Amino acid sequence: MPVVTLQHRRLERLVGKGIDEILTMLPYIALDIEEEGSDYVKVEYNPNRPDFSTDYGIARALRGIMGIEVGLPRLNLIESCAATFNVDASVKAVRPYVVALLALDGRMDDEDLRQLIAMQEDLHMGIGRKRRKASIGLHDYDKVSGPFYYTTEGKNFKFIPLNSSTEMSMQEILESTDVGKVYEHIVKEHTCYPIIKDSEGKVLSFPPIINAELTRVTEHTRNMLVEVTATDLNAANDALAVIAVTLSDMGFKVASVSIINYNGFTITTPDTGSRRMNLPIDRLSLLGLDIGREEAVECLKRSRLDAAVGVDGNSIECVVPRYRIDIMHWIDLVEDVAIGYNISRFEPRYPRLKAMGSRHRTLKALDHARDVMVGLGMLEVMNFNLVSINVQYTMVGRSSDTALLVEESKSREHEALRDSLIPSLLNVLSSNVHEPYPQRLFEIGKVFKMAGNSIREEWSIAAVLAHSNANYTEARSYLQALLHSLFGIGIDAVKTEPIDEPPYESGRAAGILFKDEMIGSIGEVSSNVLGNFRIRVPVSAFEVIISRLYMRAELI
To answer: For 327, which of 251, 271, 358, 390 is 20 to 30 Å away at the CA?
Structure first.
């Protein structure tokens, strides 16, 4: 979670209240106090509130909740476009979007500049997804001349990058500078790289890597050009909206910039337009408060929104400022009502129902199994139910024909519901090949299989034993100890029959049956599978569908 350092005197000046009262209110706008000093406080904020990345944004929220300044913040905006950006078609395949603004007639001290740069980096990490989705350039506007050009250049194109006094080619920047090495992967697949120039050909930026030394922003900068390049236009506009309101609070006049696209289409940025959303009155019951319509409206205004009771009387019409990218649904408005009401005013109440809850007997049984495995000297691990096809099937030599796939998965690590725990455990061993042996791991989790037209969820317990002497006999002894401790039955009560299937070595594995039903498997993991996972010691394993065993044993 990102952390902001707040100076006491600045906070008092920005909010208009004493520091003791301010510190009391910080947790009630969802800020966690990480550290307190004699003249500062460090707070942690949720990344979904990038407007909290500076003390200006935090002070804006505090003025609202304290009733000093309510409703939509006022933007110090100049409507006319003072500059233009011409976008060349060559950027389309590399980094297609740019948005920008001008911040004019401002004054900054050292702390203002520090907070501005810290906000830039927080936006890079959050909205910008480590600069891949969006990256921000801050420039001294007095050092350049419009109009500006967003285009591309070859790898040998040279300019003086930030913190340097000599020219370097774009390829040299990627290979020899710290920032180039970190972010090279974003552009290295392309034959040419994005560049921003002014009307005289002077370089402002090599996005998303580094700015030019020419346009370095200092505490003496009075006029700034802010540009955001991106692969996602909405992300670019989100970041620029947060920057615009912050610079306005700092005392700059924010002027628009015209972006002339390569297809002739022109947009004006920053996008500062507000959104309208309706909050159904009956949804306020989720807060458990006896709160009326008018009071809810006032709460929303203290959360720095505009609001009024709708003409139908059944909803509240809200106006959400552009920089509040965290508000996407009416439930977010309910949360802002709670914040504006002041969380400290909520009073705990006993539930009206006197029924007492208790743990489900299945979970109690699983806890018992967990205690047994830990008592046997094993270490528990927990993996995700969603797994990659590669780990779950390909690397263990299993067919994925029956895999329960996630529709339109956005990650190769979360493509399917797992039907066995052993592949995940082998993957954990693979990540710990440099740790001491023996390694004895177990996991209790759900597995998923098709049963007719529905998906059957069952609890499974699996274990892997990794060391130089791991074998079938050792795995069988651990399984026997588990069954005896859980059910008071020996291994003789559970039948085994030879099987020849992955991930086990042929002739060194067996299926586990109880009352003529297959409930699991046990064996030595094959050398091919171990090679796929780069595990260099023998591994034996077993897995039992424990919920099926419980039912068949008629114990629950």
So the answer is: 251
